[in-house]
Design a protein that fits this description.
single chain; 166 residues; mainly alpha; 2 strands; transmembrane helix; transmembrane; membrane
Length: 166
């Protein structure tokens, strides 16, 4: 069976250059660089916003706990039949903890990286596509070269499958 690394490592040989001009290669490199830049910036912005949100949630939890701790709380509940039940002190349970803070920062930071990175990838892809399609002739050459490369890769994969049968 042909592994994915073999498919990914297929490169055209010197006699199979797929009619790309240097300007086409430069346009592809520039588009790839744009996608990378957008993704990196999106990830950094997402991480920053995630950490900022985690900080705000943490400080809000601490203020809420301080207000809860200083507020006057009932000590017991008296029912209509006259019996009285003592209420437990739950201030220790709702106290913010380091583990909760760590989880908040970790989850919101990771979520920010994911959301920002995906948004950056999307905007970078749109920008990269528009950069490639600006020149119609170059865009046509790039599309045809990609189709030829796909055909070559499929031929090599078919040959490898044929050889594995015999």
């Amino acid at each position: 069976m042909l592994s994915q690394t073999n498919i990914c490592n297929m490169r055209p040989t010197a006699d199979k250059v797929h009619s790309l001009q240097q300007s086409d290669r430069d346009a592809l490199r520039k588009a790839a660089s744009t996608v990378k830049m957008h993704t990196t910036i999106g990830s950094i912005v997402g991480l920053s916003l995630g950490v900022l949100l985690a900080f705000r949630i943490r400080s809000s939890r601490q203020r809420l706990y301080a207000a809860f701790r200083t507020a006057e709380k009932p000590q017991a509940v008296r029912f209509a039949d006259g019996r009285e039940e003592v209420l437990p002190d739950i201030s220790g349970v709702v106290k913010p903890s380091r583990i909760g803070d760590l989880a908040t920062y970790t989850l919101l930071g990771a979520g920010g990286i994911f959301f920002g990175g995906e948004t950056g990838l999307l905007t970078g892809s749109f920008r990269g596509r528009s950069m490639i399609t600006q020149d119609r002739e170059s865009s046509t050459r790039i599309q045809n070269a990609f189709k030829r490369f796909q055909a070559d890769a499929l031929r090599e994969q078919a040959n490898a499958l044929e050889q594995s049968i015999h």
